[in-house]
Structures are given as C-alpha cells and as structure tokens.
C-alpha cells in the first residue's frame, strides 16, 4: 500500500478502504498465498498532514481489522516503511488503542 499516491482531494477514506479490500481479495486468489499467508507492507512515503486529517481511531481500527480478521488468509506481519514524522506522530497517538495483538505484529 502506497499512501503517498492517495490524492485526498479525489478520494475519501471509504474509497481507500474499498480499494484495500479489493487488493486483499485479489491476493487471496493466489494459491500459494492461501497456503502460506502473507505480509502486509505499508509504504508511508509521501504521507502528509492532508492524509493524517483523514485518519481517525475508527479508521485505524478498521484497517487493522480488515488486515488481520476479515481476510481468510494468515497475516504474519505488518511492516511500515518510509515513515514520515507526520505518520509517526499520528501512529503514536493511536497505537495505545490498537491492543497487544496489533502491537506484536508491528515489526516495521
């Protein structure tokens, strides 16, 4: 997932969640993914304050629930790369609300 490609003037958070779900559904069509599971990589390059304004605790919870519980495939880890200070600040605000299971998965 590449957050920097998200034009907040054209697409709201619901559109991003729909696109993410469609991407996951395509991933589970791969036979090896059905057997082995997968790793999620969020590339936060280009994440700005405009993106941060779209993120609420409910959105963060929904993203992780989709990733971990709603997809019939094992998610082994969630990696976050190219974090900006904006993302790091927002993530640190919401991290306590995610729970221990999510925090254990966060390797990036």
Specify the structural class.
alpha+beta
Radius of gyration: 14 Å
Number of helices: 6
Span of the ends, CA to CA: 14 Å
Strand content: 5-15%
Q: How are helices and strands ordered from N to C?
A: HHEHHEHH
> Major sheet: size, sense and barrel closure?
2 strands, parallel
Low-confidence stretches: none
Tell me the strand order in the biggest sheet. 1-2
Integer average pLDDT: 77
Give the number of DSSP strands: 2
Shape: globular
Percent of residues in helices comes to: 40-55%
What does this structure look like?
The protein has 6 helices and 2 strands; from the N terminus they run ααβααβαα. With 108 residues, it is of the alpha+beta class. A two-stranded parallel sheet has the order 1-2. α1 packs parallel to α4 (57-70). The protein is globular and about 40 Å long. It starts with 12 loop residues before the first helix and ends with a helix. The model has no long low-confidence stretch (mean pLDDT 77).
Helices and strands, with pairings:
Blueprint: H1 13-27, H2 31-36, E1 38-43, H3 49-52, H4 57-70, E2 75-81, H5 85-98, H6 100-105
Helix pairs in contact: 1-4
Quick overview of this protein structure:
The chain is α+β, with helices and mostly antiparallel strands and 108 residues long.
Keywords:
2 strands; alpha+beta; 12% strand; 6 helices; two-stranded parallel sheet; 55% helix; 108 residues
């Amino acid at each position: 997932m590449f957050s920097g490609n998200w034009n907040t003037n054209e697409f709201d958070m619901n559109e991003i969640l729909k696109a993410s779900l469609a991407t996951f559904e395509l991933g589970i069509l791969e036979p090896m993914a059905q057997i082995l599971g997968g790793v999620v990589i969020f590339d936060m390059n280009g994440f700005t304050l405009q993106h941060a304004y779209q993120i609420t605790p409910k959105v963060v919870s929904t993203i992780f629930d989709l990733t971990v519980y709603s997809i019939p495939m094992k998610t082994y880890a969630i990696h976050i790369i190219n974090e900006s200070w904006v993302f790091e600040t927002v993530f640190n605000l919401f991290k306590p609300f995610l729970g221990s299971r999510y925090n254990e998965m966060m390797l990036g």
